[in-house]
Amino acid sequence: MKGLLYRWVLLTASVAGAALVANALSLAFVLHVGSAREVAELFLGSAVLALANATLGRVLKLLTLPLRCMTFGLFSLVINGLILLLVAKLDYGFTIRSQNPLAEWIAAIVGSVLITLIHGLLRALVPDP
Predict the structure, then answer these.
(1) In angstroms, rounded to a whole number, what is the distance separating the alpha carbons of residues 30 and 95?
(2) 62: burial class by Cβ within 10 Å (0-12, 13-18, 19+)?
(3) Where are the domains of the chain?
(4) 12-45: buried (b, 16+ CB within 10 Å) or exposed (e) per residue?
(5) How much is the pTM?
């Protein structure tokens, strides 16, 4: 149970960090944290993101296996961006909104890469209990 809570907190910090970096890059990935309620929503959003990644992400990656093999795994970036975009539409602590749909896709793909990088860095720096 402690390990699950540890990974949840690291994922939430990764989402927050990725949103801040993406916002600094003028992308449409926006973090909504100003009160305790919004922080709780961010934790809920990161839990929904983890659940969507564990279920829908695995199914999509299995269904697109030939395409991922042809692109040497780069299509996984599109799948991860799609899942992040779908969860962001629920507006639980973070959103990806733009007038341009291409800008939303770019923000989602860059955001998913940033979440992966920050999460990996945090797991390397913070010892696992």
Answers:
(1) 5
(2) exposed
(3) 2-125
(4) bbbbbbbbbbbeeeebbbbbbeeeeeeeebbbeb
(5) 0.89
